[in-house]
Specification:
Chain lengths: 157, 368
């Protein structure tokens, strides 16, 4: 399947649940509603033409207006790549865990909780691991986070 | 006779244990010599690389990412440049692509030679360490000759490479390849059929393929478990399609296969380098349109390459300004360490050292 065929297949198969986004520059990029996340992930993994069995990467984003969580998945058997993201408003920073589908999401989701303050439901082990145990200075990957020794470099034209 | 009382106890392996290669702490619950539970404790090397990158221009991110995975810093330079080039639709001159492939593969050989040395040293054989690092030095000299650095190269840039190779590079490189390929038989002769080595590695710590895929394990560790998945073939980047090379696979998933597979990969990388040297074209080495204030249009992209320790990825988001909105890095070691507690139990503590060593985890890539 080429990238275009994959995008067309996914759009046809999932309809409204995976909405294509224009900002993806190389691989197909979709948006999924937070409520559908686990179902869609499971379906992507189980669909016999897709078999997205490999979670490459999972990361939070603070766009200064909202949170986004990006899932980069790959299929080893079918040799495909796909990205999808969940968009969350600041006041509703909660998402379901996808560990049931991809167990390797565990640490990536801990990172979401620790560095962005996005609560992950049904995770089971949301504890500190990158930051010191006694850390109490908020969520450092948020754009509005500041510390006395963190110097913002000037904007460049 | 009073009854013998036994109880579980906790062993703290690390953070400053010589075989954890950096500062990784493993909290082991032991029943005598047998491991019942492994709990990795990470974060000792957390330098907030992703946060720092958000505060730098695209060009300034490259030297920071050198520190992300410093044993194969060329790959870190490359994967970020690849992501930025995909965002900005930057064309790369042919000569630069060839130089990149040569450097990436030389770096892979150097990294596998370190693996060969330190793994053997962890298991108790000292000579391989001297051998491996001796030949790695030949490659370090080549890098130093090209970009002045031995570890943190800052060589591969957006749109090309920072400088051309000196005229003596090609003959020196061929000579280094010749020396390494001759000495491969020494390496294998020391360990492959060594009875102590076989007892310590063969059939030890078998990682099943399904578990590896579920936890996102990639690279040589995945291929040693029988899954033929190499991004140079499966998600081609740069000019790897032009070269003739094999993807080695082994099927037992034990420490011995993980060790053998890396020796196989050294041979394949040498094939790629010598083909690239043969067909190295003349011409530009850098796209002149890429300026210091490189600003790709808004968009997002995930770039991934086959690194020595598995899939190395960067998720890069641009909002059209001179600084990236988000740089999410992904390293193979992170997943390799994450899967360790799920198959590394019920074995002797001495086998954990062999297991950990053959996963080839490096901590800066985990902690970032």
């Amino acid at each position: 399947m080429t990238k275009q065929e994959l995008a067309a297949y996914v759009t046809e198969k999932f309809g409204d649940k995976l909405r294509p986004l224009e900002s993806g520059r190389y691989d197909p990029l979709f948006e999924v509603q937070a409520g559908d996340l686990v179902d869609v992930a499971q379906a992507l993994k189980e669909d016999e033409n897709l078999r997205f069995d490999f979670l490459c990467n999972l990361g939070g984003v603070d766009t200064k207006e909202r949170f986004e969580i990006v899932y980069n998945v790959a299929s080893i058997t079918k040799n495909l790549r796909l990205d999808f993201k969940v968009i969350l408003p600041y006041e509703q920073a909660e998402v379901d865990s996808v560990q049931k589908v991809w167990p390797g999401a565990n640490w990536y989701e801990r990172e979401l909780w620790e560095l962005y303050g996005i609560h992950v439901r049904n995770h089971g082990n949301l504890t500190r691991f990158l930051l010191p145990d006694e850390w109490d200075q908020g969520y450092p990957m948020r754009k509005n986070w500041d510390a006395p020794d963190f110097v913002r470099l000037p904007e460049i034209d | 006779m009073p009854e013998l009382r036994t109880e579980e106890f906790i062993v703290n392996m690390g953070p400053h244990h010589p075989s954890t290669h950096g500062v990784c702490r493993l909290v082991l619950t032991m029943d005598g010599e047998k491991i019942i539970k492994i709990e990795p404790v990470i974060g000792y090397l957390h330098r907030a690389i992703e946060k720092i990158c958000e505060n730098r221009t695209y060009q300034q991110c490259i030297p920071i990412l050198d520190r992300f995975e410093y044993v194969t810093a060329m790959s870190c330079n490359y994967v970020f440049s690849l992501a930025a080039e995909r965002l900005g639709q930057v064309e790369v001159p042919q000569r630069a692509e060839y130089l990149r492939v040569i450097m990436l593969e030389l770096n892979r050989i150097a990294s596998h030679l370190i693996f060969y040395g330190v793994t053997a040293m962890d298991i108790g054989a000292y000579t391989p360490f001297l051998y491996g690092l001796r030949e790695r030095e030949l490659i370090m000299d080549l890098f130093e000759m090209t970009c002045g650095q031995r570890l943190t190269y800052n060589y591969i840039r957006i749109g090309g490479v920072s400088r051309d190779i000196p005229p003596e590079f090609v003959p020196k490189c061929r000579e280094a390849l010749k020396i390494i390929s001759e000495r491969m038989s020494d390496y294998e002769g020391l360990l492959n059929e060594n009875p102590i080595w076989l007892v310590r590695t063969k059939g030890i710590a078998i990682l099943p393929a399904e578990l590896a895929v579920a936890y996102g394990v990639s690279g040589p560790v995945l291929r040693a478990s029988g899954v033929q998945y190499d991004l140079r073939r499966n998600d081609p980047y740069s000019i790897y399609e032009r070269f003739d090379f094999d993807i080695p696979v082994r099927y037992h998933g034990d420490c011995y296969d993980r060790y053998l597979l890396r020796l196989d990969e050294i041979r394949q990388s040498m094939r790629i380098v010598s083909q690239a040297l043969d067909s190295l074209p003349e011409g530009e080495i850098k796209n002149k349109k890429v300026k210091a204030n490189f600003k790709p249009p808004a968009g997002e992209v995930y770039a991934r390459i086959e690194n020595t320790r598995g899939e190395l990825g960067v998720y890069l988001i641009s909002d059209g300004s001179a600084k990236p909105l988000r740089v999410k890095t992904r390293g193979g070691s992170y997943n390799q360490l994450q899967v360790l507690p799920h198959y590394g139990t019920n074995m002797l503590i001495a086998d954990l050292v062999a297991n950990f060593a053959t996963l080839d985890i490096i901590m800066p890539e985990v902690d970032r």
